[in-house]
Design brief:
Blueprint: H1 2-24, H2 36-67, H3 85-115, E1 122-129, E2 132-136, E3 142-143, E4 146-149, E5 154-160, E6 165-168, E7 175-178, E8 184-188, E9 194-200, E10 212-218, H4 220-235, H5 239-249, E11 276-278, E12 284-286, H6 289-297, H7 319-330
Parallel strand pairs: 1-5, 4-10
Antiparallel strand pairs: 1-2, 2-3, 5-8, 6-7, 6-9, 9-10, 11-12
The chain binds dinuclear copper ion.
Residues 131, 165, 200, 202-204, 208, 211 line the site of dinuclear copper ion.
């Protein structure tokens, strides 16, 4: 009996220590949406259950190893035990009750996260493609960044143009697949101002790991200012403006970069025009109109040194559209 009491106390102590250890190492990123609250509630109960089960297994093992060690010179066999019906019933029924309870709690927290609905929610259209995210706002412009005002519900209506992707912002907790040929919905109420990242959570090809984009949650005033800037850029009907719109809508900046930072998986366009480009075959070429036009229409024709052969699919743009894109690239200095 003394063994049961000792093991029981040790199990509780180890379970509590495991729980506090597991929750103090920052397993989860910050909680940045109203939908995250019921999910984190569920997660916390999971950690409690995991800590208890861990202690329930580990403590008796180590207790037995040290306390019931064979004495020196003892060569007798261990006691033979022929079943124990009450024990078998107990270890079947108790886990069954726990599993069913957790199934109910899981369904309940999933339901709670979906019950947070606002009929006034803002709708943003999302296009996922290999390997970028683009957003079409109700105000009529397109962006590669998802900006959201804090405490305002948004419904993302998501479509994929090629293969299955998955929209996942860890801080929001909720995740949703984006499937070609159907529109999937993602409803979220951001509740913490900050900069986050959307990641693709479905293996979608060679550059899946780089399929991320900025998600910015800001105050209503900052959001309104950003929207006003975007509308101004979109309505400026210059070749550079049209070019920027084209590369945004077609997801080019998912791989290419427009700053001095190299792109995740394709050459940067910053300071590109007129410069010497080193090709994979060892030769160099000047980045002029002809080179850029060819690279858009037939990306395999000239492979840039250091980049994987043709992740990019050929694009079909008109000559006018390509001229606009080149005008935009020229402006990147
Ligand atoms: Cu898109 Cu992985």
């Amino acid at each position: 009996m003394i063994h049961f009491v000792t093991v029981g106390i040790l199990v509780m102590v180890v379970a509590i220590l495991t729980y506090f250890g597991a929750t103090s190492v920052g397993l989860m990123p910050v909680q940045a949406s109203a939908q995250a609250v019921p999910i984190d509630w569920m997660w916390n109960w999971q950690v409690i259950a995991i800590s208890f089960l861990f202690a329930l297994i580990v403590v008796p093992i180590f207790y037995s190893i040290f306390v019931f060690r064979r004495k020196k010179g003892d060569t007798s066999d261990a006691e033979h035990i022929e079943g124990n019906t009450p024990l078998e019933i107990a270890w079947t029924v108790i886990p069954l009750i726990i599993v069913v309870t957790f199934a109910y709690m899981g369904a309940y927290s999933l339901g709670e996260s979906r019950r947070i609905t606002d009929p006034e929610a803002m709708i943003v259209k999302v296009t996922a493609r290999q390997f970028s995210w683009t957003y079409e706002y109700p105000d009529g412009f397109v962006s590669t960044e998802l900006h959201l005002p804090v405490w305002k519900q948004v419904i993302l209506k998501m479509e994929a143009v090629d293969v299955i992707h998955s929209f996942w912002v860890p801080e929001f907790r909720v995740k949703q697949d984006v499937v070609p040929g159907r529109v999937t919905e993602y409803r979220i109420t951001p509740n913490l101002v900050g900069s986050y990242k959307v990641r693709c959570a479905e293996l979608c090809g060679s550059n899946h790991a780089f399929m991320e984009g900025p998600v910015v949650v800001s105050t209503q005033a900052d959001y309104d200012q950003w929207v006003a800037e975007q509308i101004e850029i979109a309505s400026a009907n210059t070749p550079e403006g049209r070019g920027k719109k084209l590369i945004t809508e077609n997801g080019c900046v998912g791989c290419h970069s427009v700053t001095a930072q190299p792109g995740p998986s394709a050459p940067s366009w910053f300071n590109l025009f007129g410069e010497e480009v080193h090709l994979a075959d060892g030769s160099t070429i000047t980045a002029d109109e002809a080179y850029i036009t060819e690279s858009v229409l037939d990306p395999a024709a000239k492979e840039v040194e250091g980049y994987a052969p043709t992740i990019m699919k050929p694009f079909t743009f008109t000559q006018e559209q390509i001229a606009d894109i080149i005008a935009y690239i020229k402006s990147l200095k």
